[in-house]
Amino acid sequence: MKRLMTIFAILILGGVASMALGYPKICIDPGHGGSDPGAVSYCTEKVHNLDCSLKYRDWMNLDTSDGGGGYAWAVIMTRSTDIYVSLDGRTTYANNNGADRFNCIHANAGGGYGSEMFCYTSGSGTSFTMRNQMQAELIAHGGRYNRGNKTANFYVLVYTNMPATLSENAFVDNAGDAACLNSASWRNNVALGFLHAIQTHYGYSPYTPSSHVTLIVDNANGGFSASANWWTGSSSTDKYGADYRCRSTEAISDPATFTTSMPSSGTWTVYAWWPQGANRPPNIGYVVYYSGGSQSVYVNQQANGGKWNTLGSWSMNSGSNNVKLSCWTTTGYTVIADAVKWYK
Fold first, then answer.
1. Can you give the pTM of this predicted structure?
2. What is the CATH number of domain 214-343?
3. 111-146 b/e with 16+ CB inside 10 Å = b?
4. Selected residue with higher pLDDT from 194 and 3
5. Distance CA 339, CA 241 (A)
6. Is 45 annotated as catalytic?
7. I want to staple 226 with a disulfide (CB 3.0 to 4.6 A). Which of 63, 113, 159, 230 is the partner?
């Protein structure tokens, strides 16, 4: 699914703009804040809640920008700084912004130890499922004692219009738990666990995104251009996406062009995808443009179809870059323009 996103979706590194693209909208609610510190003992609850929530947001945004797996998300937060937000303000914000899911993040107190997860006592089956998934990953990534899946009538669970959870990550008044709450790496691991949980919740395999950037231009999206001599085909089963473009080979300059916008300069690896066939050219050239000029790379489209084939790596500047697929070779073949990928 994610591999078929347009280049414009893949370029959204910050995640905010993805709200317009119809991705699941997740509202993250860091408990307490501002004049309300929450529980205070070996650590201050509001500090942990906010930092863990920000890390959860960052993992979700990184998942959106990483084209290798996972999914894409629209992330909103009831607070992203140390301010006070009322309980009604939190639920109203989530409801008015049309959030699809609500994840409230807390730490616990009262003489216990371990991690637990809540949903509304009279909540939907979806809420119960998400609660169980969030708790499973909280235990897997946080490693504290499993206090289980629970229900409660907490305000933010009762008055949100969407499936909602509230996590109690660990106890601020237990020395062992608090050592974890005070650890930035532990909070980051827990936040990654929440990402894995929401990925699972939406039917995707748990995936840890990286800061690598993948840009894909398929023949069907706005980064592709070709003359009317290139017709659309779809019969080959090893195509990328729904279709591809075809042209008869001849000694003429009439390339198909794949254009992307690089978010940053650096060394980028370029790949091409084509469906193979006996009528394809055995020696056709892709022209890759880079900071030092251009280079032709010749491939055999009669083989290696249905996968990404490496054309090479080049230093490229930020901004517009393109790859052109020539039709200039011996006549009697059909050259295929399907998809091109840049990876950094």
1. 0.62
2. 2.60.120.260
3. eebbbbbbbbeebeeebbebbbbbbbbbbbbbebbb
4. 194
5. 9
6. no
7. 230
